[in-house]
Protein backbone atom coordinates (compact mmCIF):
# COMPACT_ATOMS: atom_id res chain seq x y z
CA UNK A 1 0.00 0.00 0.00
CA UNK A 2 2.71 2.47 1.04
CA UNK A 3 4.67 1.63 -2.07
CA UNK A 4 1.81 2.52 -4.39
CA UNK A 5 2.45 5.35 -6.83
CA UNK A 6 -0.51 7.34 -5.52
CA UNK A 7 0.54 7.13 -1.87
CA UNK A 8 4.19 7.86 -2.66
CA UNK A 9 3.46 10.98 -4.70
CA UNK A 10 0.96 12.30 -2.15
CA UNK A 11 3.45 11.69 0.64
CA UNK A 12 6.24 13.47 -1.27
CA UNK A 13 3.92 16.36 -2.11
CA UNK A 14 3.05 16.80 1.57
CA UNK A 15 6.74 16.97 2.45
CA UNK A 16 7.31 19.59 -0.26
CA UNK A 17 4.28 21.69 0.69
CA UNK A 18 5.24 21.65 4.38
CA UNK A 19 8.73 22.85 3.48
CA UNK A 20 7.54 25.69 1.25
CA UNK A 21 5.03 26.83 3.89
CA UNK A 22 7.76 27.07 6.50
CA UNK A 23 10.64 28.42 4.43
CA UNK A 24 9.90 32.11 5.04
CA UNK A 25 9.92 31.50 8.81
CA UNK A 26 13.24 29.64 8.79
CA UNK A 27 16.72 31.08 8.65
CA UNK A 28 17.85 31.04 5.01
CA UNK A 29 21.19 29.62 6.18
CA UNK A 30 21.95 25.94 6.63
CA UNK A 31 21.91 24.48 10.13
CA UNK A 32 24.58 21.82 9.75
CA UNK A 33 28.18 21.12 8.87
CA UNK A 34 29.66 19.44 5.82
CA UNK A 35 30.54 16.32 7.82
CA UNK A 36 27.06 16.03 9.30
CA UNK A 37 25.53 16.34 5.84
CA UNK A 38 27.94 13.82 4.35
CA UNK A 39 27.25 11.30 7.11
CA UNK A 40 23.51 11.82 6.72
CA UNK A 41 23.61 10.96 3.03
CA UNK A 42 26.27 8.27 3.19
CA UNK A 43 24.05 5.45 4.43
CA UNK A 44 25.52 2.91 2.02
CA UNK A 45 23.91 0.98 -0.82
CA UNK A 46 21.33 -1.47 0.59
CA UNK A 47 21.58 -5.11 -0.42
CA UNK A 48 17.82 -5.25 -0.75
CA UNK A 49 15.97 -2.16 -1.89
CA UNK A 50 14.06 -0.18 0.72
CA UNK A 51 10.41 0.81 0.55
CA UNK A 52 10.01 3.94 -1.55
CA UNK A 53 8.30 5.91 1.23
CA UNK A 54 11.17 5.14 3.58
CA UNK A 55 13.59 6.30 0.89
CA UNK A 56 11.76 9.62 0.48
CA UNK A 57 11.65 10.14 4.25
CA UNK A 58 15.35 9.34 4.43
CA UNK A 59 16.11 11.78 1.64
CA UNK A 60 14.20 14.57 3.34
CA UNK A 61 15.90 13.87 6.67
CA UNK A 62 19.35 13.91 5.06
CA UNK A 63 18.78 17.00 2.91
CA UNK A 64 16.69 19.30 5.12
CA UNK A 65 19.52 20.60 7.36
CA UNK A 66 21.56 21.55 4.29
CA UNK A 67 18.89 23.38 2.29
CA UNK A 68 19.33 27.11 1.72
CA UNK A 69 16.24 29.27 1.83
CA UNK A 70 16.64 30.16 -1.84
CA UNK A 71 12.90 30.50 -2.41
CA UNK A 72 12.47 32.90 0.51
CA UNK A 73 12.02 36.62 -0.09
CA UNK A 74 14.86 37.19 2.41
CA UNK A 75 17.41 35.50 0.13
CA UNK A 76 19.76 38.14 -1.32
CA UNK A 77 22.98 36.19 -1.82
CA UNK A 78 22.72 35.73 -5.59
CA UNK A 79 20.23 36.38 -8.39
CA UNK A 80 18.54 33.03 -8.02
CA UNK A 81 14.75 33.44 -8.23
CA UNK A 82 12.11 31.76 -6.12
CA UNK A 83 10.60 28.82 -8.08
CA UNK A 84 6.99 29.92 -8.64
CA UNK A 85 4.41 27.40 -7.31
CA UNK A 86 2.85 26.94 -10.76
CA UNK A 87 6.27 26.10 -12.15
CA UNK A 88 6.94 23.65 -9.33
CA UNK A 89 3.62 21.89 -9.95
CA UNK A 90 4.32 21.76 -13.69
CA UNK A 91 7.78 20.39 -12.95
CA UNK A 92 6.23 17.58 -10.88
CA UNK A 93 3.97 16.74 -13.82
CA UNK A 94 6.98 16.84 -16.14
CA UNK A 95 8.75 14.26 -13.98
CA UNK A 96 5.63 12.10 -13.74
CA UNK A 97 5.05 12.22 -17.50
CA UNK A 98 8.65 11.11 -18.09
CA UNK A 99 8.92 12.63 -21.54
CA UNK A 100 12.13 12.79 -23.56
CA UNK A 101 12.11 16.21 -25.22
CA UNK A 102 14.79 15.38 -27.79
CA UNK A 103 12.65 15.20 -30.92
CA UNK A 104 9.01 15.68 -31.82
CA UNK A 105 8.37 11.94 -32.08
CA UNK A 106 9.60 11.17 -28.54
CA UNK A 107 7.12 13.69 -27.14
CA UNK A 108 4.93 15.80 -29.43
CA UNK A 109 3.56 17.65 -26.39
CA UNK A 110 7.04 18.62 -25.16
CA UNK A 111 8.11 19.80 -28.61
CA UNK A 112 5.04 21.95 -29.18
CA UNK A 113 5.15 23.34 -25.62
CA UNK A 114 8.69 24.59 -26.24
CA UNK A 115 7.80 26.00 -29.65
CA UNK A 116 4.83 27.96 -28.33
CA UNK A 117 6.57 29.06 -25.14
CA UNK A 118 9.59 30.15 -27.16
CA UNK A 119 7.30 32.43 -29.15
CA UNK A 120 6.01 33.91 -25.89
CA UNK A 121 9.55 34.47 -24.61
CA UNK A 122 10.39 36.45 -27.74
CA UNK A 123 7.32 38.59 -27.10
CA UNK A 124 8.16 39.13 -23.43
CA UNK A 125 11.79 39.99 -24.15
CA UNK A 126 11.06 42.12 -27.21
CA UNK A 127 13.31 40.06 -29.47
CA UNK A 128 12.93 39.34 -33.22
CA UNK A 129 10.05 36.96 -33.95
CA UNK A 130 12.15 34.96 -36.42
CA UNK A 131 14.65 33.95 -33.71
CA UNK A 132 15.04 30.33 -32.65
CA UNK A 133 14.93 29.35 -28.98
CA UNK A 134 16.79 26.50 -27.33
CA UNK A 135 15.59 25.41 -23.88
CA UNK A 136 18.67 24.61 -21.83
CA UNK A 137 19.92 24.42 -18.25
CA UNK A 138 20.84 28.05 -17.66
CA UNK A 139 22.67 31.09 -18.95
CA UNK A 140 26.05 29.32 -19.08
CA UNK A 141 24.80 26.75 -21.57
CA UNK A 142 22.71 29.39 -23.32
CA UNK A 143 25.89 31.36 -24.01
CA UNK A 144 27.69 28.16 -25.03
CA UNK A 145 24.95 27.39 -27.58
CA UNK A 146 24.74 30.96 -28.87
CA UNK A 147 28.50 31.29 -29.22
CA UNK A 148 28.67 27.93 -31.01
CA UNK A 149 26.21 29.38 -33.52
CA UNK A 150 28.34 32.53 -33.71
CA UNK A 151 31.49 30.48 -34.36
CA UNK A 152 29.77 28.56 -37.16
CA UNK A 153 28.35 31.74 -38.72
CA UNK A 154 31.46 33.93 -38.76
CA UNK A 155 33.64 31.11 -40.07
CA UNK A 156 31.08 30.29 -42.75
CA UNK A 157 31.39 33.91 -43.89
CA UNK A 158 35.05 33.24 -44.73
CA UNK A 159 34.27 29.90 -46.41
CA UNK A 160 35.24 27.68 -43.50
CA UNK A 161 32.72 25.02 -42.45
CA UNK A 162 33.60 24.23 -38.85
CA UNK A 163 31.25 21.23 -38.85
CA UNK A 164 33.23 19.63 -41.67
CA UNK A 165 36.73 20.96 -41.10
CA UNK A 166 36.83 21.45 -37.34
CA UNK A 167 38.90 24.18 -35.70
CA UNK A 168 42.36 22.91 -36.60
CA UNK A 169 43.73 25.24 -39.27
CA UNK A 170 40.63 27.46 -39.22
CA UNK A 171 40.95 31.24 -39.60
CA UNK A 172 41.29 32.81 -36.18
CA UNK A 173 38.03 34.01 -34.69
CA UNK A 174 38.68 37.19 -32.74
CA UNK A 175 36.49 37.36 -29.63
CA UNK A 176 36.05 40.70 -27.88
CA UNK A 177 34.73 40.56 -24.31
CA UNK A 178 34.61 42.94 -21.37
CA UNK A 179 36.96 42.48 -18.44
CA UNK A 180 33.78 42.76 -16.35
CA UNK A 181 31.89 39.99 -18.20
CA UNK A 182 30.47 37.21 -16.04
CA UNK A 183 32.78 34.26 -15.46
CA UNK A 184 30.22 31.89 -17.01
CA UNK A 185 30.73 33.52 -20.42
CA UNK A 186 34.48 33.04 -20.16
CA UNK A 187 33.78 29.40 -19.30
CA UNK A 188 31.50 28.99 -22.32
CA UNK A 189 34.24 30.31 -24.59
CA UNK A 190 36.73 27.91 -23.05
CA UNK A 191 34.40 24.98 -23.73
CA UNK A 192 34.30 26.07 -27.38
CA UNK A 193 38.06 26.07 -27.73
CA UNK A 194 38.69 29.81 -27.39
CA UNK A 195 41.79 29.93 -25.19
CA UNK A 196 41.63 32.55 -22.48
CA UNK A 197 44.93 34.15 -23.56
CA UNK A 198 43.60 34.65 -27.08
CA UNK A 199 40.56 36.67 -26.05
CA UNK A 200 40.52 40.43 -26.52
CA UNK A 201 39.66 41.69 -23.02
CA UNK A 202 38.22 45.19 -23.15
CA UNK A 203 38.23 47.61 -20.16
CA UNK A 204 34.95 48.63 -18.54
CA UNK A 205 33.75 51.83 -16.90
CA UNK A 206 33.16 52.29 -13.17
CA UNK A 207 29.76 50.57 -13.33
CA UNK A 208 30.97 47.63 -15.41
CA UNK A 209 29.91 48.71 -18.91
CA UNK A 210 32.28 47.73 -21.71
CA UNK A 211 34.25 50.68 -23.09
CA UNK A 212 33.06 51.04 -26.68
CA UNK A 213 35.93 53.44 -27.45
CA UNK A 214 38.49 50.88 -26.30
CA UNK A 215 36.61 48.19 -28.19
CA UNK A 216 36.76 50.06 -31.49
CA UNK A 217 40.43 50.87 -30.98
CA UNK A 218 41.15 47.15 -30.70
CA UNK A 219 38.82 46.22 -33.56
CA UNK A 220 40.79 48.46 -35.91
CA UNK A 221 43.92 46.40 -35.30
CA UNK A 222 42.65 43.04 -36.50
CA UNK A 223 41.13 41.39 -39.57
CA UNK A 224 39.11 38.22 -39.97
CA UNK A 225 36.04 36.76 -38.24
CA UNK A 226 34.85 38.71 -35.18
CA UNK A 227 32.54 37.95 -32.26
CA UNK A 228 31.63 40.73 -29.80
CA UNK A 229 30.08 39.93 -26.43
CA UNK A 230 27.95 42.46 -24.57
CA UNK A 231 26.16 42.34 -21.25
CA UNK A 232 22.64 43.15 -20.08
CA UNK A 233 22.89 43.35 -16.32
CA UNK A 234 26.29 43.51 -14.64
CA UNK A 235 26.39 41.08 -11.74
CA UNK A 236 27.32 43.75 -9.16
CA UNK A 237 25.64 46.87 -10.52
CA UNK A 238 22.95 45.76 -12.97
CA UNK A 239 24.51 48.06 -15.59
CA UNK A 240 23.71 47.62 -19.26
CA UNK A 241 26.22 48.02 -22.08
CA UNK A 242 25.54 50.58 -24.80
CA UNK A 243 23.81 48.25 -27.24
CA UNK A 244 23.32 50.91 -29.87
CA UNK A 245 27.06 51.49 -30.27
CA UNK A 246 27.78 47.76 -30.01
CA UNK A 247 25.38 47.14 -32.89
CA UNK A 248 27.05 49.87 -34.95
CA UNK A 249 30.44 48.24 -34.35
CA UNK A 250 28.97 44.83 -35.21
CA UNK A 251 27.80 46.19 -38.56
CA UNK A 252 31.00 48.12 -39.25
CA UNK A 253 33.26 45.12 -38.63
CA UNK A 254 30.89 42.44 -39.95
CA UNK A 255 30.82 40.77 -36.54
CA UNK A 256 28.41 38.65 -34.52
CA UNK A 257 27.06 40.37 -31.38
CA UNK A 258 26.08 38.12 -28.47
CA UNK A 259 24.41 39.46 -25.32
CA UNK A 260 24.72 37.82 -21.90
CA UNK A 261 21.36 38.82 -20.43
CA UNK A 262 21.02 36.17 -17.71
CA UNK A 263 18.84 38.37 -15.52
CA UNK A 264 19.12 41.89 -16.96
CA UNK A 265 17.37 41.08 -20.22
CA UNK A 266 14.13 40.73 -18.23
CA UNK A 267 14.11 44.52 -18.01
CA UNK A 268 12.61 44.22 -21.50
CA UNK A 269 9.41 42.97 -19.84
CA UNK A 270 9.02 46.25 -17.93
CA UNK A 271 7.78 49.48 -19.48
CA UNK A 272 9.61 51.34 -16.69
CA UNK A 273 13.02 49.73 -17.25
CA UNK A 274 12.87 48.74 -20.93
CA UNK A 275 14.73 51.90 -21.98
CA UNK A 276 17.87 50.51 -20.33
CA UNK A 277 17.93 47.80 -23.01
CA UNK A 278 17.51 50.13 -25.98
CA UNK A 279 18.74 48.47 -29.19
CA UNK A 280 19.42 45.12 -27.49
CA UNK A 281 16.99 43.48 -29.93
CA UNK A 282 19.36 44.25 -32.82
CA UNK A 283 22.00 41.80 -31.56
CA UNK A 284 22.52 38.35 -33.08
CA UNK A 285 22.04 36.13 -30.01
CA UNK A 286 21.04 36.35 -26.37
CA UNK A 287 21.46 34.17 -23.28
CA UNK A 288 18.84 34.46 -20.54
CA UNK A 289 17.75 32.50 -17.49
CA UNK A 290 14.22 31.43 -16.65
CA UNK A 291 15.08 30.38 -13.11
CA UNK A 292 16.08 33.91 -12.16
CA UNK A 293 13.54 36.69 -12.60
CA UNK A 294 10.89 34.55 -14.29
CA UNK A 295 10.85 32.25 -11.21
CA UNK A 296 10.85 29.00 -13.22
CA UNK A 297 12.23 26.06 -11.17
CA UNK A 298 15.72 24.80 -11.93
CA UNK A 299 17.02 24.12 -14.46
CA UNK A 300 15.84 26.68 -16.98
CA UNK A 301 17.72 28.80 -19.50
CA UNK A 302 17.10 29.99 -23.05
CA UNK A 303 19.54 30.32 -25.95
CA UNK A 304 17.96 32.75 -28.39
CA UNK A 305 19.51 33.18 -31.83
CA UNK A 306 18.36 35.52 -34.59
CA UNK A 307 19.96 33.31 -37.28
CA UNK A 308 18.04 30.04 -37.09
CA UNK A 309 20.17 28.34 -39.74
CA UNK A 310 23.40 28.96 -37.81
CA UNK A 311 21.76 27.89 -34.55
CA UNK A 312 20.57 24.61 -36.03
CA UNK A 313 23.84 23.96 -37.89
CA UNK A 314 25.77 24.33 -34.63
CA UNK A 315 23.51 22.09 -32.54
CA UNK A 316 21.48 19.59 -34.59
CA UNK A 317 22.12 15.89 -34.07
CA UNK A 318 21.26 13.73 -37.07
CA UNK A 319 21.03 9.96 -37.50
CA UNK A 320 19.03 7.52 -39.61
CA UNK A 321 16.74 6.55 -36.75
CA UNK A 322 16.11 10.24 -35.98
CA UNK A 323 14.70 11.03 -39.40
CA UNK A 324 12.17 13.76 -38.98
CA UNK A 325 8.68 13.04 -40.26
CA UNK A 326 6.65 15.92 -41.59
CA UNK A 327 4.72 17.31 -38.64
CA UNK A 328 4.82 21.07 -39.15
CA UNK A 329 6.83 21.84 -36.01
CA UNK A 330 10.43 21.71 -34.85
CA UNK A 331 12.64 19.18 -33.09
CA UNK A 332 13.89 20.68 -29.78
CA UNK A 333 17.26 18.93 -30.08
CA UNK A 334 18.08 21.04 -33.13
CA UNK A 335 18.74 23.98 -30.80
CA UNK A 336 20.51 22.43 -27.78
CA UNK A 337 23.39 19.93 -27.48
CA UNK A 338 21.30 17.25 -25.73
CA UNK A 339 19.33 14.51 -27.42
CA UNK A 340 17.96 12.94 -24.25
CA UNK A 341 16.79 15.58 -21.83
CA UNK A 342 14.02 16.82 -19.58
CA UNK A 343 10.99 18.52 -21.15
CA UNK A 344 11.77 22.05 -19.99
CA UNK A 345 8.98 23.87 -21.76
CA UNK A 346 6.11 22.76 -19.51
CA UNK A 347 7.24 24.66 -16.40
CA UNK A 348 8.05 27.83 -18.35
CA UNK A 349 4.63 27.63 -20.02
CA UNK A 350 2.96 27.31 -16.59
CA UNK A 351 4.81 30.21 -14.96
CA UNK A 352 4.13 32.58 -17.87
CA UNK A 353 0.45 31.66 -17.70
CA UNK A 354 0.33 32.06 -13.90
CA UNK A 355 2.04 35.46 -13.86
CA UNK A 356 0.87 36.99 -17.13
CA UNK A 357 2.34 40.12 -18.67
CA UNK A 358 1.38 42.29 -15.70
CA UNK A 359 2.70 39.83 -13.12
CA UNK A 360 6.10 39.50 -14.80
CA UNK A 361 6.40 43.27 -15.15
CA UNK A 362 5.47 43.72 -11.47
CA UNK A 363 8.13 41.23 -10.39
CA UNK A 364 10.80 43.21 -12.20
CA UNK A 365 9.50 46.62 -11.12
CA UNK A 366 9.05 45.77 -7.45
CA UNK A 367 12.41 44.06 -7.09
CA UNK A 368 14.05 47.13 -8.64
CA UNK A 369 11.98 49.41 -6.40
CA UNK A 370 13.27 47.56 -3.35
CA UNK A 371 16.87 47.83 -4.54
CA UNK A 372 16.53 51.58 -5.05
CA UNK A 373 14.89 51.96 -1.63
CA UNK A 374 17.61 49.98 0.18
CA UNK A 375 20.39 51.89 -1.54
CA UNK A 376 18.79 55.25 -0.80
CA UNK A 377 18.30 54.38 2.86
CA UNK A 378 21.83 53.05 3.36
CA UNK A 379 23.50 55.96 1.55
CA UNK A 380 22.33 58.32 4.32
CA UNK A 381 24.64 56.66 6.85
CA UNK A 382 28.26 57.92 7.01
CA UNK A 383 30.78 55.21 6.21
CA UNK A 384 28.41 53.03 4.18
CA UNK A 385 29.68 53.20 0.61
CA UNK A 386 27.21 52.67 -2.22
CA UNK A 387 29.54 51.62 -5.03
CA UNK A 388 27.35 52.34 -8.04
CA UNK A 389 24.21 53.98 -9.31
CA UNK A 390 21.35 51.53 -8.75
CA UNK A 391 19.93 50.63 -12.15
CA UNK A 392 18.10 47.36 -11.61
CA UNK A 393 17.94 44.87 -8.75
CA UNK A 394 21.54 44.86 -7.53
CA UNK A 395 22.93 46.85 -4.59
CA UNK A 396 26.65 46.55 -3.85
CA UNK A 397 28.12 48.26 -0.80
CA UNK A 398 31.24 48.37 1.33
CA UNK A 399 32.04 49.88 4.70
CA UNK A 400 34.73 52.23 5.91
CA UNK A 401 37.83 53.25 3.97
CA UNK A 402 38.88 51.68 0.66
CA UNK A 403 41.73 49.68 2.19
CA UNK A 404 42.35 46.52 4.17
CA UNK A 405 40.76 48.04 7.28
CA UNK A 406 37.62 48.74 5.29
CA UNK A 407 37.59 45.16 3.99
CA UNK A 408 37.83 43.87 7.55
CA UNK A 409 34.98 46.13 8.66
CA UNK A 410 32.84 44.98 5.72
CA UNK A 411 33.37 41.36 6.74
CA UNK A 412 32.43 42.17 10.34
CA UNK A 413 29.15 43.71 9.19
CA UNK A 414 28.51 40.63 7.07
CA UNK A 415 29.15 38.36 10.06
CA UNK A 416 26.66 40.39 12.10
CA UNK A 417 24.03 39.91 9.39
CA UNK A 418 24.71 36.17 9.30
CA UNK A 419 24.44 35.98 13.08
CA UNK A 420 21.09 37.77 12.89
CA UNK A 421 20.07 34.95 10.53
CA UNK A 422 17.04 36.56 8.88
CA UNK A 423 18.61 37.50 5.53
CA UNK A 424 20.95 35.49 3.35
CA UNK A 425 23.74 37.70 2.02
CA UNK A 426 27.23 36.99 0.73
CA UNK A 427 30.47 38.83 0.24
CA UNK A 428 32.22 39.26 -3.09
CA UNK A 429 35.46 40.79 -4.29
CA UNK A 430 35.03 43.56 -6.85
CA UNK A 431 37.78 45.81 -8.17
CA UNK A 432 40.09 44.50 -5.44
CA UNK A 433 37.78 45.32 -2.54
CA UNK A 434 35.56 43.16 -0.34
CA UNK A 435 31.92 44.10 -0.91
CA UNK A 436 28.48 42.90 0.11
CA UNK A 437 25.97 42.44 -2.71
CA UNK A 438 22.21 42.42 -2.20
CA UNK A 439 20.29 40.79 -5.04
CA UNK A 440 16.52 41.18 -5.29
CA UNK A 441 15.10 38.42 -7.50
CA UNK A 442 12.45 36.44 -5.62
CA UNK A 443 8.89 37.37 -4.67
CA UNK A 444 9.36 41.06 -3.74
CA UNK A 445 9.41 42.08 -0.10
CA UNK A 446 7.34 44.99 1.19
CA UNK A 447 9.09 48.32 1.68
CA UNK A 448 8.63 47.84 5.43
CA UNK A 449 10.64 44.62 5.22
CA UNK A 450 13.36 46.35 3.21
CA UNK A 451 13.41 49.19 5.74
CA UNK A 452 13.90 46.64 8.51
CA UNK A 453 16.83 45.12 6.61
CA UNK A 454 18.34 48.57 6.15
CA UNK A 455 18.00 49.29 9.86
CA UNK A 456 19.68 46.01 10.82
CA UNK A 457 22.59 46.81 8.47
CA UNK A 458 22.97 50.29 9.98
CA UNK A 459 22.88 48.91 13.54
CA UNK A 460 25.53 46.33 12.62
CA UNK A 461 27.73 49.03 11.09
CA UNK A 462 27.39 51.24 14.18
CA UNK A 463 28.37 48.30 16.35
CA UNK A 464 31.47 47.60 14.22
CA UNK A 465 32.50 51.25 14.47
CA UNK A 466 32.00 51.31 18.24
CA UNK A 467 34.22 48.28 18.71
CA UNK A 468 37.01 49.58 16.48
Low-confidence stretches: none
Envelope shape: globular
Structural class: alpha/beta
Radius of gyration: 24 Å
- Name the assembly state: single chain
- The amount of helix comes to 40-55%
N- and C-termini, Cα separation: 64 Å
Strand content: 5-15%
**SS elements, strand count:** 11
Helix and strand string, N-terminal first?
A: HHHHHEHHEHEHEHEEEHHEEHEEH
State the major sheet.
7 strands, mixed
The largest sheet has its strands arranged as: 1-7-6-5-4-2-3
Mean pLDDT: 94
**Helical segment count:** 14
Secondary-structure blueprint of this entry?
Blueprint (H helix, E strand, L loop, with lengths): L4 H18 L11 H8 L10 H12 L21 H13 L10 H18 L6 E5 L2 H18 L5 H4 L8 E5 L4 H9 L8 E3 L9 H8 L6 E6 L11 H10 L3 E5 L24 E5 L11 E5 L2 H8 L29 H34 L5 E3 L7 E6 L4 H17 L5 E5 L2 E7 L7 H21 L1
Parallel strand pairs: 2-3, 2-4, 4-5, 5-6
Antiparallel strand pairs: 1-7, 6-7, 8-9, 9-11, 10-11
Overview of this protein structure:
The chain is α/β, with parallel strands linked by helices. The protein has helices spanning 5-22, 34-41, 52-63, 85-97, 108-125, 139-156, 162-165, 183-191, 212-219, 243-252, 308-315, 345-378, 404-420, 447-467; strands spanning 132-136, 174-178, 200-202, 226-231, 256-260, 285-289, 301-305, 384-386, 394-399, 426-430, 433-439. Helix 6 crosses helix 8 and helix 13 (404-420) crosses helix 14. It is globular and about 65 Å long.
